[in-house]
Specification:
Structural class: alpha+beta
Number of strands: 11
Radius of gyration: 23 Å
Helix content: 10-25%
Strand content: over 45%
Order of helices and strands: HEEEEEEEEEEE
Largest sheet: 7 strands, antiparallel
């Protein structure tokens, strides 16, 4: 028997102790899996378009991949998709309108295509071709505010 303590108070103390240990552990697992920090990422796929957000070197990039068909557009060079990117200061959220960059697309069969980003009033875009179904590597190298962030993500094409 524990003097001065009841079984109920010991159980309550144990419960609070377990809770105090569990919260930081679960919070750490959640934050580690979410990609917080200077390399934070988020992506989502909706019908006809794919969005991906990523921060590198203090520059947030918001990517959007859309089929040209879903936009009722055709490309004279036969491209099938449109990749848009908007750059923002990660701290202030202010859009950066002065940038240059290139997109490299690597197909499932390892074929590489490199295209320059075109400036459409602060939103940058390039048309690319996704010929085969599978996972494509998308790499964007940009020069923004004297920095050269490099963004990489996967795009699954059906």
């Amino acid at each position: 028997m524990i003097t001065g303590l009841t079984v109920k108070s010991v159980k309550k103390g144990l419960m609070w102790g377990i809770l105090a240990i569990s919260i930081p552990v679960f919070a750490g697992i959640t934050l580690a899996g979410s990609g917080h920090g200077d390399k934070s990422m988020d992506h989502q796929k909706m019908e006809g378009e794919f969005k991906h957000h990523m921060t590198m070197e203090g520059v947030k990039a918001e990517f959007q991949v859309m089929s040209l068909a879903s936009m009722n557009m055709k490309d004279s060079d036969g491209a099938t998709h449109h990749i848009m990117v908007k750059f923002m200061n990660a701290d202030s959220g202010e859009q950066i309108k002065e940038a240059v960059g290139r997109i490299k697309v690597i197909s499932p069969s390892k074929k590489e295509t490199v295209v320059d980003l075109k400036d459409y009033s602060g939103i940058y875009a390039a048309n690319v071709t996704f010929e085969e179904a599978g996972k494509y590597g998308v790499i964007c190298l940009a020069k923004v505010d004297g920095k050269k962030p490099l963004y990489k993500f996967w795009y699954s094409h059906q």
